Amino acid sequence: MPFARPSLTALIQQVLADLAQASGVPAVLRWRPDYAMGIAIAGLTQGLYGYLDWIARQAVPATSTGEFRAAWAALKGVFPKDATLTKGRGTFPGAPGALLPVGSAVRRADGSAAYVTTADAAVGLNGSVTVPLQASAAGPAGNGPAGTALLLSPAVPGVTSAGLAEGPLTGGTDAEDIDSDGFLTRMLLAYAEPAQGGAARDYLDWALAVPGVTRAWIQPNGMGAGTVIVRFMMDETNPGGFPVGSNGVASDEPRAAPATGDQLAVANAIFPDQPVTALVYAVVPTPQPIDFSIGNLSQDSAATRAEIRTALAAMLRAKGEPDGTIFPSDTSGAVDAVFGVSRFTILAPTGPVEIGTGSLPVLGTVTFVS
């Protein structure tokens, strides 16, 4: 039976009744010193009840917070993900042969982020140089799409200061908040399903512990007997959520070609924990676009259509997984939840959409029929 914590009003009444009984009077008068003392005692007692309530919440992993949650998680080898640095490549025009040295300072043209070059590079005969970049500070501020305007600051002789990101600048994440739902979920899974040395759940835990990884799926024997495919997404780090890099194995694994980029980070993180005989591939899911056609839409406007597209994309992210199914009820539920939509007809797809092995559903073309 749960303990019923008394309210402050109940505590005041109890203390005043006890004082009256101890003093041999029918009641403690409002302006007597005893009355003020009773109010003070009740307030202190209320604070003690609150402290005991807080202690009780910290006494079990599921309700703990802050440093106590971190301590409970550490007992199972679960630790907050560290902040990570954005990485990418920048291209700058210049005079052939001019050197862009390692450690050169680069910043976004809008001043929102700073980077440094991580290798020497020389301008080629084509009049441009491409150099690897790394953000100066950890966090998502350095992330950006391909074509982001960059500036060398200070200028480097023979190299034009204005350049562009050759591809997306990705990988920067904030440090994981101990009180976040994601950290709580990882901790509770560690208690509910402790590691068994290579179960499917273990690979999920190892992948989800990598900074930036938000979702993961396991395919045993996906590349043949004794192999494990780990597919994952980085929804909060990369545009579109899909990892950037090439599929493969860990850099210390001699039996297959190593991965690059985000896939290499995941493969290398799993490698020390995986069974020694397993050959683990880190793989990006294949996007599977799903087109929708919607008719008879009430409150038909550009804003409503945009909200429907957003709702459908969110539904696909929440429901989608390799070898899964997107049901008509999922689509109807997403559209019906959009504010102001009271009538609509889903014209396509008309039935369940099967998601292929290794694929992940993404929003395709949404057509609105008047």
From TrEMBL:
It holds the Pfam family Baseplate_J_C. Belongs to the Mu gp47/PBSX XkdT family. This is Baseplate J/gp47 family protein. Residues 300-368 form the Baseplate J-like C-terminal domain. Residues 195-283 form the Baseplate J-like central domain. Residues 91-172 form the Baseplate protein J-like barrel domain. It comes from the Bacteria. InterPro entries: Barrel_Baseplate_J-like, Baseplate_J-like_C, Baseplate_J_M, Phage_Baseplate_Assmbl_Protein.
